[in-house]
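Project outcomes to date are best conveyed with an example. Our students and postdoctoral researchers have been running inverse folding experiments weekly, and each run begins with a structure described purely in tokens. The record below, which covers 240 residues, was selected by the lab manager from last quarter's runs and is presented without edits.
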């Protein structure tokens, strides 16, 4: 095949130069096709379908505003009609603990002849105080055995077994018994200490004021079920 001649190459080059100076031809925008004769125009009713005029909807518009509900306050707590029977049961009269004092957890005051508790109970008349499981008992250990005193011939604090009847009956028993021996401190008789320890109860001996303060602290931390106290009034004097 023969190579193109020089005049032909010059003519092609001139043609490309002229084409580069011409503006680009833009394509026309895409136009939707015309509806075919087989399909009806959307603006014209179909000859095969019945034409129905526009019908307005009479549905109520939805409202998001809250509606106020008027609730009447009930006049009685009974679930049924009022009873007309003459023999009505008074359940409050059947409460056997209605007059019982609330359990106590602390001692408010130590007096010379008694004690004041936080639940309003007052121990007076020169009696001591025995607190077990939140229950308060008037305690007179000097009357156990009919001796009328708390110290034995050796100067030891000895009450005998008759002063601890409540501890022998209560269950579960406390872990610790705080003894307040009155205005001072005395050694505990070995028989008294052994009797209490045999019930699984440890003993802490102090004077009455410090014993009451320690009971208030330990009863708050450990609970009244784990700590008990037996206190002699601070005005107790041993008979001569």
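After processing, the design step wrote out the following sequence:
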């Amino acid at each position: 095949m023969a190579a193109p001649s020089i005049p032909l190459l010059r003519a092609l080059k001139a043609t490309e130069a002229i084409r580069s100076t011409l503006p680009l031809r833009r394509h026309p925008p895409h136009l939707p096709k015309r509806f075919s004769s087989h399909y009806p125009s959307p603006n014209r009713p179909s000859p095969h379908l019945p034409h129905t005029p526009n019908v307005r909807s009479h549905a109520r518009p939805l409202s998001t505003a809250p509606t106020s509900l008027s609730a009447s306050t009930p006049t009685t707590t009974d679930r049924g009609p009022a009873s007309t029977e003459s023999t009505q049961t008074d359940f409050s009269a059947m409460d056997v603990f209605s007059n019982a004092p609330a359990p106590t957890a602390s001692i408010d005051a130590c007096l010379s002849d008694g004690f004041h508790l936080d639940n309003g109970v007052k121990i007076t008349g020169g009696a001591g105080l025995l607190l077990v499981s939140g229950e308060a008992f008037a305690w007179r250990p000097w009357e156990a055995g009919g001796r009328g005193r708390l110290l034995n011939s050796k100067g030891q604090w000895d009450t005998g077994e008759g002063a601890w009847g409540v501890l022998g009956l209560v269950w579960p028993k406390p872990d610790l018994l705080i003894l307040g021996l009155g205005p001072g401190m005395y050694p505990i008789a070995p028989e008294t200490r052994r009797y209490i320890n045999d019930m699984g109860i440890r003993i802490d001996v102090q004077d009455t004021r410090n014993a009451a303060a320690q009971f208030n602290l330990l009863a708050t931390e450990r609970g009244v079920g784990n700590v008990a106290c037996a206190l002699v009034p601070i005005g107790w004097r041993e008979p001569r």
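Residues 6-21 form the longest helix (16 residues). The two ends are 156 Å apart (CA to CA). The training component of this project remains on track.
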